[in-house]
Amino acid sequence: MQIGRFHVGNEIRIGVFENDLVYDVTREFESFADALSRPEDATDIDGKTYDKADITYLPPTTARNTVFCAALNYEAHADESGSAVPERPLVFMKLPRTLVGHRDPISYHTSVTQEIDYEAELAAVIGESARHVSPDEALEYVAGYTILNDTSARDLQLELPVGEDNMLDWFSGKAMQETTPMGPTVVVDEIDDPQNLSIVSRVNGETMQDDNTRMMIRSVADLVSFLSSRVELEPGDVVATGTPEGVGTFQDIQLYPDDTVEIEIENVGRLVNTVEEATK
How far apart are CA 240 and CA 19, in angstroms? Predict the structure, then answer.
């Protein structure tokens, strides 16, 4: 089952996405977090139906949720960046206002950054509150999986002089408004093993990353367990699991307005967005 959020007119709706159609199941749930905690109740397929081409996709999470992102979680990506693998998960966070949905633009001000990059990532979406859960039980708290493009402003992220050293600016590089695509939907009850999925990114049709989630250093279960030891994870929270090698900055590639970025993960879907100059 694919469950997600979408806009029709001025209303935010919850839908089950199947083939070319979206079945509106909003009245079945109190909220999208509620839908993630009991997706098996999304059975009202006799409600209103929309064509996917006629709706606006929204990121499949909520405004109250947190997006947790694991850095350097593929060894080959750590190698290409010249970084050591961290001894424990290295995690940063994004604001909900950073996210955009499938088919929405990645909006950057070129007066602020000139080096925009892509990062294909599998993301787990939490379905039940999780606190101090073990890796063995962690996947029981995951509602399903989606795709996140951890689009990054490399010139802002990588070089922030502090005295004689350079620091990483995670906020400016990773969390500017309307820059991080996520979606199209959350795939629930269909992926038994998140550690064996092909993951590919393309820019204007050219393959940039081509790997498999089995190459993660720390599994989805490990990351969920680690995060739950720090904070209570809530339904709708997102755990992005890091990107494979092949990001643009280490190939002297960057994104420009009108470029199209496509990320495809086996059994999860295809997330497509175009880069544009921001207007606000």
Answer: 26
The overall average pLDDT reported for the chain is: 94
* Structure-derived torsion over alpha carbons of residues 8, 14, 18, 21, reported in degrees to the nearest 10: -20
Name the stretches of the chain with pLDDT < 70: 44-46, 159-166
pTM: 0.95
Q: What percent of the chain shows pLDDT beyond 70?
A: 96
Q: Is the peptide bond before 105 cis (omega within 30 degrees of 0)?
A: no
What is the reported pLDDT for 160?
Answer: 67
Bridge partners, 17 (sequence order): 2, 22
